[in-house]
Amino acid sequence: VCVCVCVCVCGCVCKWDIIHSDNTHYLIMDFNGEGCFGKVAQCFDLITFEMVAIKIHKDSDDPTIQREVAMLEAVRALDPHKKNILRFMENIMFNNLSCLALEMLDRSLWDLIEERNWEPLSTSEIGPVTHQLLFAFEALKNIGIMHTDLKPVNIMVVNHKDQPFRIKLIDFGLGLPVSKAKVGMIMHLCSEQGFSLQSQLIKKKKKKSYGNCILFHCSATKRSQRIMVSGMVPPAMQHQPHW
Q1: What is the Cα–Cα distance from 5 to 128, expressed in whole angstroms?
Q2: Gap between the Cα atoms of 58 and 35, Å rounded
Q3: DSSP, res 195
Q4: Cα distance between residue 103 and residue 87, in whole Å
Q5: More confident residue, 42 or 203
Q6: b vs e for 172-202, b when ≥16 Cβ sit within 10 Å of the residue's Cβ?
Q7: Domain match, 63 and 174 both
Q8: Does one domain contain both 130 and 221?
Q9: In sequence order, what are the residues at sequence separation of 6 or more whose Cβ sits closer than 8 angstroms to the Cβ of residue 190?
């Protein structure tokens, strides 16, 4: 006897549900990853037979969702493979919830470093990551988009087993057109990032500063990494630090 267990998220979407779109049908296989926005479902595309990640929002009326969709539509003009940007497929409404169909990737840079027991990346490993990030930044600059939320959890490894350190930039929920950015503008962060200060200032050299912080994080000594997760930073930042 086969017993199927229905696991629901947000009270409206369950494991083994099929999300229908105009282009295909997605079978929900499992859920993984959760934030203030909702959850991410691992789905199987019944037409193309590929695994897809679907970001399911808790509150479809949240105006930030529309901003995220607008940013994803904008970056879709870029070649996701050549420019190292997450591939966005489509925006779907399912059970009155906004669902974003996205490329399935392997793991975040943060997860990878954690799996290595906080062993820092070597120069030969940091080099390719830096090169790919700069390509992504240049591509975003050319279409007038700022990511504004660069951190290790938003840098995903595509397939570490077959393509070591092949990365893509993800999560454009805080993306912003360059034309709307001003020095001194307040940028609010998701609540689960746990900052006592709930905002950050955009600075003129922000892109360079953030890039340098990412490189420092990757190359920090094992002792520095252990100190960082041992309580010298706010507990909520220990798993999803913002740099």
Answers
A1: 43
A2: 10
A3: -
A4: 5
A5: 42
A6: bbbbbeeeeeeeeeebebbeebbeeeeebee
A7: no
A8: yes
A9: 35, 36, 37, 173
* Residue indicated by tokens 């062993």: 119
Please check whether residue 99 is in contact with residue 92, taking contact to mean a CB–CB distance below 8 angstroms: yes
**Which residue's entry shows tokens 């392997």?**
106
Structure tokens at 233: 């930073």
- Do residues 40 and 22 lie in contact, with contact meaning Cβ atoms separated by under 8 Å? no
The answer to whether residue 106 is catalytic is: no
CA 121 distance to own-chain centroid: 21
User: Residue with structure tokens 């906080």?
Assistant: 118
Q: The domain containing residue 176 runs over which residues?
A: 107-183+212-227
Render pLDDT for 199-230 as a digit per residue (tens, 0 to 9).
333 333 444 444 555 665 565 545 444 434 43
Q: For residue 146, give the CATH number of its domain.
A: 1.10.510.10
pLDDT given at position 63:
81
CB 55 within 8 A of CB 69: no
Based on the number of CB atoms within 10 Å of its own CB, is 215 exposed (0-12), middle (13-18) or buried (19 or more)? middle
Which is the catalytic residue, given 17, 45, 149, 171? Answer: 149
- Tens digit of pLDDT for each residue in 119-134? 888 889 999 999 999 9
* Token pair listed for 163: 């393509």
Is 174 a residue whose pLDDT tops 60? yes
